[in-house]
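I'm curious: can you give me some protein's one-letter sequence along with its backbone structure tokens because I've never seen that pairing?
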Amino acid sequence: MQRHTVTLDHATDWPGFRTAARALVQANVPPQAVDWRSPADAAEDLFAPEPAASHTLPSPSPDAPPLRVPPDFVHLCEQLILHRDPARFALMYRLLWRMAQGGAEAEAARHDPLDADRMLAHHMVRAVGRDKHKMHAFVRFRPVVEPDGNTLHMAWFEPDHYITVANAGFFIRRFTQMRWAILTPDASVRWDGQQLHTGPGAQRSDAPPPDAGEALWLTYYRHIFNPARLKLNMMKKEMPTRYWHNLPEAALITELAQTAHERSAQMVAAEPTTPRKAIAPLKRPAPQVLP
């Protein structure tokens, strides 16, 4: 059996995967005869084939039927390709191949919620969705004055998956009037107020250091912390510790958590206070109508 190696242009090259997968299916190439990789995968694999042969796609079989898939499968793959697992390409192609075979195998790949491939694909897509949500919550911008005098708000984030470019739309909608940039190890995105610019990955040292505004935020965070409502396990579930080293307020969590019990006891033992009586606003006299 002839093997085919496909090296895509980048880790989230959905158009490239779609073109190659369609050609391979129509040439009747089974999943076990295809090796999928991105440039990053090829660089890490000492036994990867030479890239020169990776873009040669077979000709379609004369009797190849037209390839049609449901729209929800396309949407699933658009999210699945953002996962960091190198096996995501093989999983997508395996599902596509099964759909093209027809019969019970195609029906299971399309609709069976207990199908192993479908379950794995949806599990990976949910992981991508959670990572997007964490990025929404944990990005922290810091202002930087550029040479032209304008302010650029920059942030550093370390996602679990390749979500940086796909997630930029959220920040464009939320901070449309603000000029900002988000740096990650995989890619960088910058919004100039009119257009989104994408670039290569960056390093933590490329992001700006803490500023005076951050100190003000830490003061505010310390004062709004309620020790009586602390649930450390729940907090770690919603804000996993792997994100803490990039969150300014995380530097206070250990201290505040250690003193939470003592502060709660002091709140319970404190004398009750009488709330201030609200002062009713003065009523304006009704206007007089002159005879």
Q: What stands out?
A: Residues 116-138 form the longest helix (23 residues).
